[in-house]
Every structure is written in C-alpha cells, then in structure tokens.
C-alpha cells in the first residue's frame, strides 16, 4: 500500500502524541516542491470542459458551495434571505440544485435552521473565536457546543496558527481533538472542518504538516482559510491538501474532505478546482460529501453561466441577488 509515511515511521501518531513525537513525524514528511506544484496547477488550468460536461460541472459546483456570510453587520434578515437563496438558487428553474450548506456565525445558526429544516441543505457555523482563534479553550468549546445545540450540522474551527508556527503541535492537536468531541458523538454528530489559514502558514511544507496534524485530530474536512487573510484559497495550496488527504487515506483507511474557501468568485476558476480535484484526488472526492467551496459571490456567477447555457442569453447582474 502506498503511504505518506517517511522511512522509519511505521504509523501515524496517536492524537495523544507529544510535541516531540509530532515534530519528529511532521518534519519527517516528504517536502513539497513548490515550483513543481505551481507548474502542475498551471498545466491543469489549460484544460477545458465543454458542452454537457460543463452543464454537469456547473450543477456540481452549486451542490458543493457552502454559501457564506461572515460579517459583523449580519442580521437575522440577511442570513434567512441567504438561506432561502441556498435552498432555491434560481427560483425560475426548479432543476437548479440547492447548495451544500449555509455558513454563518454561531449566533445566527437558529435563524438559518428555521428556514432549512427538513431540507438537505446543511447549516455550518464558524466557531472557536473565528477568525483569529485568540480565546481561551473553554470559550472555544462553549462557542462550539452552543452552535451544535442550536442545530448546526457542521462546525468550521480555526487552528491556533501561533502555536503551530512556534512548533507547539501538541497544543494544536489537543484543540482539534477537544472541538471534535464538542461536536457530539454518534452518526448525528456535527462534522468538523478544520481551517488551516494557509495564508499565514508561509510554505507548502507547513500546509502539508498542518493538514496531516488536523487529520490526526479527527477532522472530517480540512479547509484552506477563513477568507479574512490574503492570500486565501490558491490552487497550489489546495493541491497539497488534496494530496495529503489521499495519502492519509492510504495510510489509515480514513477519508477526509477538503474545503477551498476565499477568493473563488468565477465559474471558470471553480471549474479549474474541479479539474484539480479529479486529477489529484480522483472521482471519490468529486462529491459535496468530500469537496466544498466556501463562497458568497461564486454562486451568482455560476447561476449567470447556467442561465446562459440554457437560454443562450447572458443575463445582466440584476438577474441575481446581491449577497
């Protein structure tokens, strides 16, 4: 079996591993060739999807979107309007699929649940003192538990980047494990997405290490960014994360999803990510269960492109709502 393990290490460390054990493991992982990664994504970006395949791709993108609003000015009215849009993105076309989830701050979860109850659309909440994560652990856990109690199906937590960058890997791992436990237990527990904030990790080697660390802690998804730090999602970063989840499954048998969030605004760019997913991870990840886009304006562009393909006319931007 192909595994991500470097020579001399027989298994992925346990979630109780010490800093020294984690450092030895993570810094023993194969390094990432940044030039090669950038060349690979540039080469994949030249591929095109046409005709029926493009129709399929546009609908799949919609089904993979976590439709998001994470602003200080969010109101119950704004998030309920967004939830209704997520349920029926194109009110004039009943064949248009709903989005994967509506992603909001924890205090807005109950408002979204009232709109989406009984549907397939999930409710996701950012937690653990999003976006900086600068809070005491009991505050982070209370944040998570309240969102779950209010009906969140998914929790998007942020890692402590200061701890990670200073080599305190045990602290990062401990927090992921604790938040995973706060998500509940059993088949109905909330799924955990762990945000790496890759724009602050500086290197692709660090992206790989943080990806594996989050998966050791029990992440159901690893997520690129909060959308509050530049650069947010990039294709080289996403490719490294995709390869990491493939390698992790080979080593442990556990499949983990990837969420690319921040800066993906056009259908053309979103399709490039689909190609990247297919070529790096394969068709097992080409579903909303295993790949997501964290986005707000992306949905509007996909709807405009979708309408153009069905009507032959490119609608003006007043055809879609402003989010």
Automatic annotation (TrEMBL):
The keyword Lyase applies. Keywords: Lyase, Schiff base. It catalyses: 2-deoxy-D-ribose 5-phosphate = D-glyceraldehyde 3-phosphate + acetaldehyde. Its EC number is 4.1.2.4. GO terms for biological process: carbohydrate catabolic process; deoxyribonucleotide catabolic process. Signal peptide: none annotated. One of its GO terms (cellular component) is cytoplasm. It is an enzyme of class 4 (lyase). SMART domains: DeoC. It holds the Pfam family DeoC. Pathway: Carbohydrate degradation; 2-deoxy-D-ribose 1-phosphate degradation; D-glyceraldehyde 3-phosphate and acetaldehyde from 2-deoxy-alpha-D-ribose 1-phosphate: step 2/2. GO terms for molecular function: deoxyribose-phosphate aldolase activity. PANTHER family: DEOXYRIBOSE-PHOSPHATE ALDOLASE (PTHR10889:SF3). Belongs to the DeoC/FbaB aldolase family. DeoC type 2 subfamily. NCBIfam families: deoC. This is Deoxyribose-phosphate aldolase. It comes from Euzebya pacifica. The lineage of its organism: Bacteria, Bacillati, Actinomycetota, Nitriliruptoria, Euzebyales.
